[in-house]
Amino acid sequence: MTMSPSKSAMLHKQVRRALQSGRYLPGQRIDPTSLASEFRISPTPVRFALYRLVGEGLIADCGRSGLYVPLPTEVAMRDLYDWMERLLLMACSLSANSNGSRALMPDLNPAQDDVVKLTWKLFDSMAQATRHHSLHRAIRQCNDRLAPIRRAKHGLLDDPLDEYQRMLLVWKKGDPSPVRRTLKAYFARRKALVPHIVDRLNEISKRVH
């Protein structure tokens, strides 16, 4: 017998997508009461969903101040970029001998203008190609945590769509060595921009308060 998703699971999915899409910005408070009213459900499943997101690192529990989209420090952001890089390099190594791994790719058409969404899908495809469930889950969680940051840093990088297209082309060819070099260069650029990204996030946070 198939079971329909619980209200808590459905809300978890909705808020997760909202974080990816940029509806909630780093440093912005997420009000459980407003969510309960918006989705017409009781407060209990709302809190279950939000604290599941807290456990996944997508929302920060600031005690009496409430629940917020994380606003990382420079140290925390460098750590997050470094962790994602290590996970993807591991995925690259594991998928190198996986037959048919590229067939798992969803639509990654660069004609779409949402580079953040395209990047999320590409990294998720790299994880999925490993056929390693635990690694895929770790990359997806880190990917989700980086999505609001990717949107907030818009304009700090020159032509991110072109960068994405180059990365996609290398990935499609299937040779792990160029993929590894491309990933290292991708994250090196972002690590160099960490102070500027944090400044941008702090500016955004002041506006949403």
Which keywords apply here?
209 residues, mainly alpha, Arc Repressor Mutant, subunit A, Four Helix Bundle (Hemerythrin (Met), subunit A), three-stranded antiparallel β-sheet, 9 helices, globular
Low-confidence stretches: none
Number of helices: 9
Q: Evaluate the radius of gyration.
A: 18 Å
Query: Could you say which structural class the secondary elements and strand pairing correspond to?
Result: mainly alpha
Shape: globular
Biggest sheet strand line-up: 1-3-2
CATH class category of the largest domain: Mainly Alpha
Query: In angstroms, what separates the terminal alpha carbons?
Result: 46 Å
Order of helices and strands: HEHHEEHHHHHH
Give an account of the 3D structure.
This protein is mainly α and 209 residues long. The protein is 66% helix and 3% strand. It contains 9 helices and 3 strands; from the N terminus they run αβααββαααααα. It has helices spanning 7-21, 32-39, 43-55, 74-95, 115-128, 133-152, 160-173, 176-192, 194-208, and strands at residues 29-30, 60-61, 67-68. It has a 3-stranded antiparallel sheet with strand order 1-3-2. β2 (60-61) and β3 (67-68) form a beta hairpin. The longest helix has 22 residues, at 74-95. The termini are far apart. The model has no long low-confidence stretch (mean pLDDT 88).
